[in-house]
Amino acid sequence: SYSSGERQQRRDSRRRSDVGEWTAAFAEISNPPSPSGMANTSSDALAESDDCALAESDDCVREVRRCIEVIRDKLNYDVPTSIATMRSLEKMFANIVEAPDEPKYRRIRLTNPKAARLLGAKGVQPLLVKAGWRAAVEQMEEIWIHDGSLPLLRTTRQILSSLAASDAAAHAASEIVRAQNLAKATKVKLDTLADIKADRESYMERNGKSNGAQSGHGGTHKAPIVNAIEFAPAVAADR
Questions:
Q1: Between 37 and 183, residue with greater pLDDT
Q2: 3-state secondary structure of 40
Q3: Are 77 and 71 in contact (CB under 8 A)?
Q4: 173 and 96 in contact (C-beta within 8 Å)?
Q5: What is the secondary structure of 145-182 as a DSSP string?
């Protein structure tokens, strides 16, 4: 049990504690975060979102991939041309991703012969549109401007880089196999020609001996003239 004085001290202590908690809560309500602080938070979040790539399930990414498949289609381009086109686009997009505040990278001037040739390739302009580019006229000059989503552009660049690398590796491997098959075919051809030559020489040698034996017996039979061109296919067919 407490004396009356001790009980009064405990009540005063609890009262002071409650007053302190109320004061802190009121100060928190009366002083919300500054607008500048909130703006900084949102801009940081925006910058963070710009650093992210989009998911493969995104509809925009699917559209981009469909456009890239037109460039990869072997009916439209041979493989080296397709790879070169994707690498040119990837480099162009990389300039924007690495320096997004540089205006010159966000413009394509068709007075540049290389740029005009690139944009004239089948499938390129639809891809640019899907990746956030648009055609415009500036100072009586036709240009293309990028003012679209940076995450989508970053994703498009990654897709182009990945597909160009995989296509280049596959093409290099197929070229090695083709060279090996060509070398084998060449060897078979040379071996066949060598066998034909050897057979022809053997035939001529046997035929010459036979004619020599006949002429030794006083015969007037002449050695037949063999047409090597007609003879060679026959020997090859026998083999």
A1: 183
A2: helix
A3: yes
A4: no
A5: EE-S-HHHHHHHHHHHHHHHHHHHHHHHHHHHHHHHHH
**In Å, how far are 62, 73, 110, 121 from 117, measured between CA atoms?**
26, 18, 9, 7
Question: Based on the number of CB atoms within 10 Å of its own CB, is 96 exposed (0-12), middle (13-18) or buried (19 or more)?
Answer: buried
User: Is the Cα dihedral 76, 77, 79, 83 positive or negative?
Assistant: negative
**Contact at 8 Å (CB) between 128 and 121?**
no
Give pLDDT tens digits for 166-213: 999 999 998 888 888 988 888 888 888 888 988 888 888 888 766 665
E strands present in the chain: 107-109, 133-138, 141-146
Structure tokens at 203: 């035939």
Query: Quick one: tokens of 209?
Result: 């001996």
Q: What is the pLDDT of residues 68-114, one digit of tens each?
A: 999 999 888 899 999 999 999 999 999 999 999 999 999 999 999 99
Amino acid at the residue 71: I
Q: Which two tokens stand for residue 187?
A: 């060897």
